[in-house]
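request received
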Amino acid sequence: MKQKKTSRRQFMKNAALMAGAGTIGIERSVANIEDANLPPSVPEWMKKMGRGVVTVPYGTPSPYEDKVIRRTVPWLTASPISSISFSPLHELKGIITPSALHFERYHAGVPEINPDEHRLMIHGLCENPLIFTMADLMRFPSVSEIRFIECPANGGMEWRGAQMEALQFTHGMVSCSEWTGVKLSVLLDEVGIKPEAKWLLAEGADGAAMGRSIPIEKALDDSIVAYAQNGEMIRPEQGYPVRLVNPGWEGNTSVKWLRRLELGDQPWHLREETSKYTDLMPDGSARRFTFVQEANSVITSVCPEKPLKHKGHHELEGIAWSGRGKISHVDVTFDGGVNWQQAKLKGLVLDKALTRFSFDWDWDGSPALLQARAVDETGYVQPTLGQLREVRGVNSIYHKNAIHTWQLFESGEVRNVQID
Amino acid sequence: MKQKKTSRRQFMKNAALMAGAGTIGIERSVANIEDANLPPSVPEWMKKMGRGVVTVPYGTPSPYEDKVIRRTVPWLTASPISSISFSPLHELKGIITPSALHFERYHAGVPEINPDEHRLMIHGLCENPLIFTMADLMRFPSVSEIRFIECPANGGMEWRGAQMEALQFTHGMVSCSEWTGVKLSVLLDEVGIKPEAKWLLAEGADGAAMGRSIPIEKALDDSIVAYAQNGEMIRPEQGYPVRLVNPGWEGNTSVKWLRRLELGDQPWHLREETSKYTDLMPDGSARRFTFVQEANSVITSVCPEKPLKHKGHHELEGIAWSGRGKISHVDVTFDGGVNWQQAKLKGLVLDKALTRFSFDWDWDGSPALLQARAVDETGYVQPTLGQLREVRGVNSIYHKNAIHTWQLFESGEVRNVQID
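response:
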């Protein structure tokens, strides 16, 4: 029997004692419980029958959770059809993003595709070009892997200065799912690629025919032609009935509504790899084909949407991810990077997946500058904003994986600020 | 460059050649593509704009997936309120069950609970009884773990003979989610349990006040007071806003809408552990408090809902799980248990989680008796139906984890049959 009072428990008590009126104390006496509408008093919902089984054959969240939704920023793009929605990271737990809350990005809206009429063609520099139905694709041996997808523009509004007063908007274009499908290497084996094939064009069946050029090495490594997400068929906005998943790479390369893969000997220089998804450098040149989403992290339990309501114990939580592999460790700082302390990695630590970290923290009520810094298994260390700007300037709207700062005030409020 | 034709590839070719009219061949030539409405022809949905971003702030599946739902069997229980819905296992991929398709079982319907008014009381044989708000619970350090939950009545209609012509009904009361919450041991440490406390009463806030007695050893081991499932707050039918999760144990003990935990020195002998959730043995005695869901498995890619449409290559797939720990291996047979071959475990193999297995199979069109047999890391081997009936008789409706048989006919149709 464990009966010792831990120091954490003492934290909680102190927190409750220190907390001002209207804040939440962690401990309540059960003495005088008759005075309140609390257990063992019986609440209203125990006095009647609830709704019956399969009243909702496909379930939905509680109506009390109706604020936990994807959101967009109207001024970000010219049209609400070709735009972005952001995942509510401040409300999410664990590492699986509910499919219903996965961020969205598309260029001509979400097509409504009849899976029986959809085809995937693989052609170009191969021996045996083929057209696959969905039933064909689903006959091949499948894999299921938990992987993040991140838009390379995640945080892109922040290159020149802090703009967005919400975690949902600063980092909400990263999500993580269990993806199921056929390894692309299996399909390429089926068509028999020619030695001169070095690149692959992936094209979507949306009105934009969104396309990207993928090096053949990636296609033969870990790319998945995926038809399921988190156990069920992919949702329309995620590419129903089939999409490419390039683990760890720019989300834009994981082409949705995949209809065509063409093998070629050079990249196609499409709109999305020339005008867009390139980094304009200070000297006027452009970085191109920078596919990997490098290590990134952010604190999620303290953020503009989640101000602190009391002093004392807090489990500081956040997420980290790297397109190069597993997260090896995460450090946190409360003084804007002067002193760092190692956070704990929680739960599953998977290759190219969101990884949750935490740090048991006792807030004394002082102002603070909170940051997290991720390191991946290749030894890559998430850079400071200054380091990133020194190399890349401020013209890009992509690949901003700099250490992020939350400024905490004595009031418990949190603001998005930048420290070089 | 991989260009060799694998034997699997040859399987596919043979399958396509062997398949009769109307069946699906895996390979199609792209010659004469102008003749068909196939790529590179442009389908209708590429010629217009799709729906805009966050038109659906909380996403939903494609309308083409509207048959992938939970289902119930009207005659199973006296009332559709106190009943069961089954998860569509034949349509699910990977190991995560979408929350919207998690099986349901409840005894007085789904209460609609306001989380701000919900409380969890912990009292009885402890030093410091406490009442927690949801905000209190969410301040404690959390854990996130992928665990299955299975109703102990899963397959219970089949003790006396095969009845249900659908995988969804024979095995659809097992699901697997990433659960997030506070370890119960942390909360028990907070209240300070007394040495004489040996059992814990868990009570739900539904109209049935559904309750179970839990040994204190389990509570101090791996039980979770969970508020999130697959990244978001638990759905109403899964216990919103908070439930108990006892990994690997009878789903019934993972009390939903958790409102009260009482520490005592003996079990409470409640309805759900006397009249129900006990096994009536051949001698008239009852097995009680048989908490662990023992190793089980079933083939999911060939089942009554998924008849075979062609000869040749198939990836035989299924799921296995054990309440004692990890699955160590799974064997499959095509002749009703005479010859066994080892299947491959796919993807993550986690403690007390669904584990997916597969076997590359070349069907020659003959009738077959398909079975899977799971072994867990403790060495426990899933029993035959005969072995289980020899020990337990046929009076129970619980804890039927026997090897399951699908009878495959030459037509490709599949029936649910029993082999002792």
